[in-house]
Amino acid sequence: MSSVKSPAKLLLLAFACVVVAPFCTSQTNPVKGETTAITVQGVVLLDPQHLPVKKASIQLFGRRAPTPYSSVTDADGHFVIDGVIPGRYSIQVEHPGLVAAGPRMVNIMAQGTGEVLVHMQPAAAITGTITDADGDPVRNVSVMATRVGGGRGWRGHDSGNGSTNDLGQFRIPDLRPGRYTVLATPGRDLPVLDATKAAPGEGHLVYVPTYYPGTVDQNQSVPVDTEPGQETPVNFEVLLSRAFRVTGDVAGLRSSDMAQIMLNSDNKVDQQQLQPGGKFEFANVLPGSYHVQIILFDLGNGQSPSVRFASVNRNIEVTNEDIRDLHLPVDQGASVRGRFRVDTGEQFDWTQLTVMLANSDGGPGLLVPSNGSEPPTFSTVTKDGSFEMKTVPSGKYQLVVGARGSSDKLREYFTKSVMLNGQDVGSGFEVNSATNLEVVISAKGATIEGTVVDDKGNPVSSAIVVDVPDSDRRLRLDVYQQDTTDERGHFSLRGLNPGSYTVLAFEDLEDSPHDPEFLTSYGNKGEKIAADEGTDKRIVLKLIPAASD
Asked: Which CATH number, 2.60.40.1120, 3.60.10.10, 3.30.70.100, 2.40.30.270, labels domain 244-330?
């Protein structure tokens, strides 16, 4: 189990997260007995010539450091950082025209040398010209490049932004070399010439966000390949689409509520402030199916404001005509109650535990109020093992069990079952009325531990070890775990829900183990393990180098 300091520290929990352990969000080997600060020094080199990089900004980010440690390299590319508390850190290095290359994580050990070698390479850039349907250049178009498969790990420079000038030209610099999707988003007021007049209520033509080489569907976009130190030119046209007007009101709000309405559909999002009486009017809604979400702001009578989400139990289907005078009642939510028990009947201090609901149907997950109050999808557990979450928005959720302290012994426990009306709903359950759960935990979690070695058989420190469950449990959040090897290359995945796993070790993990294609790319590079209840499996893992990612 991992520590949960307070509800306000929780982040939005979704399938895109890297790993979720049985009772925690991740595991790391704790640094025991190491409190003496040490001096970390290193060098930044430019590949492939291995030239020193001067004036590079270095920052170390770690859980044990309230603020990042920082330094700047000298003329020989060297840097020194004093007073570093031993632990695991991510390294961020910045220099105009350059990007980091290779692993970005390091273990700083008290008994080690504290020396760090950082590699950089010339950055890539994407340039081009954006035109309209008449072939004329368009200014003030926002252009975004997003690296294919990027943005989920610790690497930086996986996306970039630019804007077109008066000649329709843009440049997106400082990109990590790789493949990128490019999206151009024109302004809402871009004029449309010679547009065919539609009949009243049948919409109007507008320019819409367009992916290279000219499509509104991201799945049909063509990735752009970039090389170190090179500019890759892409020229394309923003597309026209018919848009429609959607008007109506939201019912069930208090007159004092400040609220916004948000329409979500795949990559399309539109949002506006609700007017008096809960009224709204969207002028340019593209065809599609839209999930409606209400964002409520509570000013708190002079106290810190809070934010919460509410849902509407219907989608808006926009096809080929305006939609007017919609009446959307707010979902007032339902209660989710439950009670814990241990499979052996032993005594247990239930106040150590917390429960959270992770939304598994694409809607809102864990919402964090800014005033530190508890969100509707979080609850502590009382002495008798019971819990309750009120006003939970309708949707499909998974129950995730957490811990309030840092007790290492809780890592042996796992969530054995989540029962609703006699059925195990550990993979998810619907909330649309009062829901009562029975949660069974067990101290007989399986353990998979071992050593990570390189191609020469040497132990590897700071390697990232993850497990991926068999296909039948791939959507369950509580069966994924992650650990980082210590200075001896050792790792330990504890409290595993019994079953079959593929265990892998990465020099630098970028992709999400939750991705359906993850094992297609890496499955043959890991070890397949059948972990029975209460067993301890010992294995040796071959490191997957960063170059293989």
From this structure: 2.60.40.1120
